[in-house]
Structure formats: C-alpha cells, structure tokens
Amino acid sequence: MARKVQFVETVLRDANQSLIATRLPYDKFEPMLSTIDKAGYYAAECWGGATFDVCLRYLHEDPWERLRKIREKMPNTKLQMLLRGQNVLGYSHYPDDFVKLFVSKAVENGIDVIRVFDALNDVNNLKVAMEATTKAGAIASGTISYTTSPVHTHAKYVEMVKELKQMGASTICIKDMAGIMGPKEAYDLVSAIKDAVDLPIDLHTHCTTGLAFMTYLKAVEAGVDIIDTAISPFSGGTSQPATETMAYALRQLGYEVDLDDTCTKKMADYFKGVRDEFIADGTMMPKSMATDTQCLTYQVPGGMLSNLLSQLKQMNALDRFDEALLETPKVRKDMGYPPLVTPTSQMVGVQAVRNVLDGQRYKTVSKEIKAYCRGEYGRTPAPIDPEIQKHILGDEKPLTGRFADTLAPIVDETRKKLEGIAKSDEDVLSYIAFPNLAEKFFDERKAKEENVATYTITEA
Ligand code: CO
How far is the CA of 174 from the centre of ligand 1 (A)? Predict the structure, then answer.
C-alpha cells in the first residue's frame, strides 16, 4: 500500500508571519475556516509564534477569543500552536507556574498540538511545557531547532530526540527556520531519527534559499510523516512550499495524500484576493517572495540580514554591512554556536554590529548577551569562549542549573494585581506575557463596552 504523507497548513500562522508580519486579522480568514477544516490536513497551525503579540499590538484582537472562534469553526482539524519552551511566546524566561497555566489554557481554549522548541535546543527549557501539554491531553511535538555547525552532528540531534521522547513527545518536529537544510541533510537526518525512535516526524522548512521542495521530497523518501506547507498564494519566498504543489508531486510519485483538491482550490482562490490586498497596501514586500541564497554562503538567516541592514541604516553605517556580515558567524562561534532563531539571532546580530562599529570586539555588550553568558538562556550547544565569557562577566559566576528555577511564581500575584481589570485567567496570562500591550487592550475593550452601553441607553 502507498505510504501516506500528511500536511500541516501554515497560512494562518507561519506563512502569515513570514510574508505579512502576522498582520492577517481574524475577519480576513474567517470565511475560509470551514473549508480548511474539510480539506483533510493533519493540522492547521494557527496560533502562537508572533500571532499573540500582533493580535494585541496591532489588530485589536483578543488572541484567546481568536483561538476560540477558530476552534468553533474548525471542529474536525487539529489546531496547532508554536511555543518557545520556557519563553512561551516572549523573549525571556518565565517561571514554571506561568508556563503550566498558559499551556493548560491554550489546550482548554482549543489547541490540540503544541510544537515546543528552544532557541538553544536545551531540553531543560522544554521539559515543563512538554509535560504540561501531555497533562492537558494535547499532543506534545518535541522540536529540534535545526542549524549547522561543527557541534551540530546528527548523533547530537538523535540524542536530543531520545530525550524528547522521554519527556512525552508524541511527534518530533525538525524545525528549519532559516530554510538552510538541503535535500541530502534532510534524507540523512530523517533516516537517522527514524532509526532511533518510532515517532512520527514532521519537517518544517522555509523556501528562503530555494531548497525547500527538494528537501521535502528527500525527507519523504527517508520516511518523514508530516510536512508543513502553505496554500499557494501564501507560499514561497520566506514562507513554506505550496500545499497543492507538494500534494501533486507526491501523488505522482505514488504517495497517498488525503487533501481534498476542491477545498485547496477554493482556499487558493480566496487567499489570492487576500494576498493582493496586502501587496497593494505594501505589507507584502516583493523581497519576501524572492529566493535569497546568501544564507547558504553566510549561514545567516534571511530575517537577520534585513535586521542587520536596518540597524546599520539607523546608525548611518550602511557601508559597514560586509564587515558586520563577516563578524556575525564569529560572534556565533564565540557564543557556542547557538541556532540563529529568535531571540539568539537578534542578540548575535546586535553584538556583531557593535563589535564592528566600536572597532573593538565586546567593548560594549547588551544586557541580553550578558544574561546569555550567565547561562540564563540555557545550556549552549558548545561552551562559550571562556576568555570572552570571563571578559563579559568579570567576577560573576555563570549559572549551573536551570534559570527558571531561580524565578519566583508569578500567576497568583498577578491575579491579585489585576483584580477588577482582568476578566479571566486568560487575561492574566496575556498581561504576564505582554503587560503594556495587554493593559492597553483592556482599556480599549472597556471603552468599547462602555460605548456600547451608552449607545444602548441613548437608543432606549
Ligand atoms: Co517557520
């Protein structure tokens, strides 16, 4: 019998985040939810990542309400979210009580699959979120943040996968956020993991460097079970390969694909219109749709290149771009080869720019890099260069245990603080994650309710 390959649709989360800075409001995708639900996906990735932040910051939406509405319209498809381990959706580490409550509320509001990753692949940062996911009855997808370096061997990844399984992972995700995984690496890594554990494997990549379609094909040959794709109008460039294209090619090769072509056609027609609106208003930029192979040369993800450019532009130092680009992999090496993903990509990029502009390496150091050297972000893939670490920390000793163990519980105290303001534990969680944004959102919500009330009274 033909082997089945399953699909995760990313248009609502990663494609949305990669191509239009997550600016897709609920009302714009609502008409397609029942179609996506009927299309036969393994899951729809629709929450977490930057969606939470952007809902509050720009879209005036309650992220929790968005999730409940999606759930209601999509009763048959698993809803998936992306969660940054102990960072949850933010950029710093949170105490365990927050991580646990966030995960249980996410599941209660409709999430079925939580893809848990850590920027450093430190499993200690994944444990609490993974266990909370399983406890809440959802699928914990233990995730590898894929990168290449002298210390990122397949043997190391396999070792990590075994640890993830022990922590309760029911699936494994290989997350290639920069789109740097080539077809051979995909074949070899998927084969190695398949040999070591009997869990379904999901491969996640981006088209940024143009490798993605080839990479998926070889991964499927090696036995990958699930691939992440985006409906065609929101595919390609910095997003995922197109859903329909992968389905077409895999069927031609004899694989079984459960997708309903009538549904994907309807989705493509609809999202074409949505895409065109975002092109017209300038949100979707042509450069995010292009293939950029620089990343393969410099090992610097596409998003980081544009950040480097804008940083240098702000400092009137665009002429130093080449130097900053060459400095970036050196800083990464000094820091023990962290995968370049949020937040480490920003930290390494900013430090590279400082090293170049100061004319002296590590003369100035951000508080984030200092915290990183103290061990607050977790165990680094290779040791941090001891001399540089000593220079940055002075007499301070780096942490030996898990940073979150040093953090006091935060939920109860925030509940008390928000009495009369927060309407639910979900509000409390929004506030802990993004205090300023949540406060503004609560004010707006209150004003809206009062307006409605006033209006009703006047009308009556
Ligand atoms: Co991604």
Answer: 10
